[in-house]
Write a structure and sequence with these properties.
This protein is α+β, with helices and mostly antiparallel strands and about 230 residues long. Helix 4 (about 65-85) runs parallel beside helix 8 (about 170-175). A four-stranded antiparallel β-sheet has the order 1-2-4-3. Strand 1 (about 145-150) and strand 2 form a beta hairpin. It has ten helices and four strands; from the N terminus they run H-H-H-H-H-H-H-E-E-H-H-H-E-E. The chain is about 55% helix and about 10% strand. The chain is globular, with a radius of gyration of 17 Å.
Length: about 230
């Protein structure tokens, strides 16, 4: 069974995706630190991420769509470490990562791809895929994976929901000695779903000490939710 080699076998594709998104983050780094330092932070982030690939925990590879989420988490950590090396606090690093994420999801052509994904999300095929993935996660085949269940919506309060009771993001950051970053990275879910044309509502997250992450998703115009650390 392929485990630790999956990331290396897919390295060219993974690195291509991260290089594409890095443009948006580099813009924020340069605005905060100047062109030379911003470019250095971006370059160091990509180097750190590439070095981390062989050690990423295997959670199912192509069979688990959250494998990409784990790569994004590792990329977030790489940016955090690089920003730290240039004197950034966790709040300042989180601010730049959030703004870069928001910029990426609203950039061309990403925004069109995200809109398409949002339209597909409520299709019977996609809903069935989420439910099957939720059931598979309950088997806990991969210890570093997310564990969740699908929640049926009523079409009024929300259209579809997911309750996460274990989080791969938290597990990875704890393993890497950066648990303090987890609550901040959770905020990037808002611009992601907004780019998909979906409204995300949450009352608690595991990273903030809750019993679950209660994602509730609705069709319609998303609300812009601004975390406090955007104003540090």
């Amino acid at each position: 069974m392929p485990t630790e080699n999956w990331y290396l076998r897919n390295k060219s594709r993974i690195m291509r995706e991260m290089r594409l998104s890095l443009r948006s983050y580099r813009t924020e780094f340069e605005k905060a630190y100047g062109k030379a330092a911003g470019e250095a932070i971006a370059r160091e982030s990509l180097e750190r991420f590439e070095a981390s690939l062989p050690d990423l925990p295997y959670i199912g590879g192509d069979e688990n769509r959250l494998s990409r989420a784990l790569c994004i988490t590792a990329f977030g950590l790489a940016m955090y470490r690089s920003l730290q090396a240039h004197g950034a606090s966790v709040e300042e690093a989180a601010r730049l990562i959030y703004l870069g994420t928001e910029r990426f999801y609203t950039s061309f052509p990403t925004r069109w791809l995200m809109r398409w994904q949002g339209r597909q999300y409520y299709s019977p095929k996609q809903q069935d895929r989420v439910k099957r993935a939720a059931a598979a996660s309950q088997e806990r085949r991969y210890p570093e994976n997310w564990v969740f269940e699908a929640i049926e919506g009523d079409g009024q309060d929300f259209d579809f929901g997911v309750d996460y009771t274990e989080c791969g993001l938290i597990k990875y950051l704890e393993r890497e000695g950066a648990p303090e970053l987890a609550p901040y990275l959770c905020w990037t879910d808002y611009p992601m779903f907004a780019a998909m044309g979906m409204k995300l509502t949450r009352t608690e997250t595991l990273a903030q000490g809750g019993q679950r992450c209660d994602f509730r998703l609705s069709r319609g115009k998303p609300e812009r939710v601004e975390p406090e650390f955007l104003h540090v």
